[in-house]
Amino acid sequence: MSELIRILIADDHMVVRRGLGALLTPRNGMEVVGEASDGAEAVALARELQPDVILMDMVMPNKDGVTAIEEIRQFNPAARILVLTSFGEEDQISKAIKAGALGYLLKDTSPDQLFQAVRGVASGHLSLPQDLARKLMQDLQRPPQAEPLDSILTERELDVLKGIARGLSNQEIAAELAIGVTTVRSHVSSLLSKLGLTNRTQAALYAVERGLT
Fold first, then answer.
1. Any bridge partners for residue 56, and if so which?
2. Which DSSP string corresponds to 131-196?
3. Cβ pair 181, 174 in contact under 8 A
4. DSSP 3-state assignment of 211?
């Protein structure tokens, strides 16, 4: 990631895009590198520009936010997406996080909260209140809470899960644990399977709920 956080804004309202562009400036350590007016354009620009963070609206023409997130994550599983929308219903939040978004904010949030969320997501960290993370985990298939993690995962898989919870990439986890990146990938696949989860975002949520952060 460059010194400036490179951001793609996806929103069908030009006023919103221009307003965000006025906030997300080099003065605040950020740079808007692209704007998408619908979901399909968001997917195309995400592939072309490879931004550090994608700000994604939930309701857009051609493709909605959830569909765009899913498609972006197909060709770039490491994409860091922050939903910024007017809709705060729990089912919408759940759909976005399950699709692979790392954070969720409402458009009436303060600039400081937006900056904090963008920086957090850019670093690979979840930008969700802990109580919301717990609620979302109730929708995810997972082993019973009473079953201790060390009886589900190996010691090394637990170490990798803790790294995921901290927002570390596979390369960073490999360096920290002094193992190969391929080995880390294998551990990630194994722990996701054992926990009944489908992606790293769900694994990070699971770790938050279990107090591993």
1. 10, 83
2. HHHHHHHTTS----TTS-GGGTS-HHHHHHHHHHHTT--HHHHHHHHT--HHHHHHHHHHHHHHHT
3. yes
4. coil
pTM of the model: 0.70
Beta-sheet strands, E only, within 3-154: 5-10, 30-36, 53-56, 81-85, 103-106
**What is the amino acid identity at position 68?**
A
Residue pLDDT, tens place only, 79-101: 999 999 887 677 778 788 888 89
Mean pLDDT of the 142-154 span: 67
Euclidean distance between CA atoms 159 and 137, whole angstroms: 21
- Give the separation between CA 177 and CA 10, rounded to whole angstroms: 37
Structure tokens at 68: 């765009």
